Amino acid sequence: GSADAEYDVVVLGGGPGGYSAAFAAADQGLKTAIIERYATLGGVCLNVGCIPSKALLHNAAVIDEVKHLAANGIKFAEPEIDIDMLRGYKEKVIGKLTGGLAGMAKARKVDVIRGNAQFVSANHFEVAETTGTGSEETGNKKTVAFKNAIIAAGSRVTKLPFIPEDPRIVDSTGALELKGVPEKMLIIGGGIIGLEMGTVYSTLGARLDVVEMMDGLMQGADRDLVKVWQKMNEYRFDNIMLNTKTVGVEAKEDGIYVTFEGAKAPTEPQRYDLVLVAAGRQPNGLLIGADKAGVAVTERGFIEVDKQQRTNVPHIYAIGDIVGQPMLAHKAVHEGHVAAENCAGHKAFFDARVIPGVAYTDPEVAWVGVTEEIAKRDGIKITKSVFPWAASGRAIANGRDEGFTKLIFDAETGLIIGGGIVGTHAGDMIGEICLAIEMGCDAEDIGKTIHPHPTLGESIGMAAEVALGVCTDLP
Ligand code: FAD
């Protein structure tokens, strides 16, 4: 049929995967559009994910940090917190970044089409125009034709069926709205998102409980890293419930009553002022009419792709959360670049050896590549070397020497295949280990690279020197 507009590339979704793909396609000279239902670009990450959580976590970390100074003879009064101003700060941060994206789209002549999109064929989207701050439809519809499409429709919070609608029960988006600080808060799901939000609310004054089905918090990270975080953060929690299922949630006038099941679970329902449901996210693959384009979607809503990010329909690509784990912004961005290059006729592949993970808690926990857990599970022979921050001049000077840096080498080749850091700024440092893995470095490459002294980053060089049996003589 006749379309209202026609493009070389149409990207479905304006998150980090989508805008990165669109900008890269435009930079290749392709006529490109992004379809996004919300008023701003940036997707989950900029609007209700990575960025707002870090804006709040930064404030929380400063509050926590000045408390450490009491031991050095510097005492501050209890902070006076104006929650409206803090929320305003977070909004300002989001606004700067989403505004920047709008400018970048304009500069590249990428059309941003506002609306809910559905495939209607293998070459057309139907877009129901949306308006306002949400995604209310105006009733206007148009058809957008494409030569190539890139699906970047992301993921949404997994809803637990037995949880009622109540303003005192929120998901991460609701928690980021920061309507107030509860006295007693339950986090359902002890993963990164739940623990980051818990850190913010706890520093602002809430007491925390956390419930997790697995046998430890922050799954994916090695237990030795998590242990350091947990020891430093136990004071925030009244109860850390592991191997425990949440089986009932009841909204009563005086609070939300939650029932648990597990060997060590409380037998009586527990009362909370706020419940954060952070029990995972699910992909949006089943909500976009993919079948009309012949694109295969799994039962759970994931879209399978090859190394070129192609779906089973060769001119339709998919990237980001919708193609699978790990659901992380930096993975989405790289996949977006690969898809865009292929749209432009280049042969590009997603060929990253490793994708780092970071919990931006206090201290931060960061890991990449082969962990000790993975090595054990897969029977990979490794050697590890650990540099404790108790021997780092900078960490001691900072009064934060609880952390450590760990490098993991392939026992046969001696090449670095993984690493983990727990400590302040761990997330900012893990990138060096990623680079070392991508470049195929061994301990000598890392240990003989001169790192600046005294820095926390130096601990990576020192961990490599430990592996080489060199005395690390810089305190
Ligand atoms: P999304 O960001 O989900 O974007 C998809 C976009 O598509 C959305 O804007 C949506 O409105 C739009 N869309 C979907 N369907 C349609 C349709 N039919 N029509 C029109 N538009 C549509 N990751 C990190 O790497 N670091 C972090 O620190 C981090 N923190 C996080 C904190 C929280 C609280 C949460 C929830 C997530 C966090 N993440 C973090 C994960 C990160 O946000 C996601 O991995 C990332 O946003 C995925 O990008 P994406 O492009 O695949 O999809």
UniProtKB/TrEMBL annotation:
Establish whether keyword Ribosomal protein is in the entry. no
Q: What is its EC number?
A: 1.8.1.4
The signal peptide annotation in the UniProt record is: none
| Keyword Oxidoreductase applies | yes
**Record-level Gene Ontology MF annotations:** dihydrolipoyl dehydrogenase (NADH) activity
State which residue ranges cross the membrane.
Answer: none
Please write the reaction equations for the catalytic activity of this protein: N(6)-[(R)-dihydrolipoyl]-L-lysyl-[protein] + NAD(+) = N(6)-[(R)-lipoyl]-L-lysyl-[protein] + NADH + H(+)
Record keywords: Disulfide bond, FAD, Flavoprotein, Lipoyl, NAD, Oxidoreductase, Redox-active center
The Swiss-Prot or TrEMBL record lists the needed cofactor(s) as:
(R)-lipoate; FAD
Q: How is the cofactor bound?
A: Binds 1 FAD per subunit.
Q: Which domain of life is it from?
A: Bacteria
Per the record, the similarity remark reads: Belongs to the class-I pyridine nucleotide-disulfide oxidoreductase family.
**Other remarks in the entry:** The active site is a redox-active disulfide bond.
Name the UniProt record assigns to this protein: Dihydrolipoyl dehydrogenase
* Source organism (scientific name): Vitreoscilla massiliensis
Q: Which gene encodes it?
A: lpdA
Q: Which residues of the full protein are shown?
A: 114 to 588 of 593
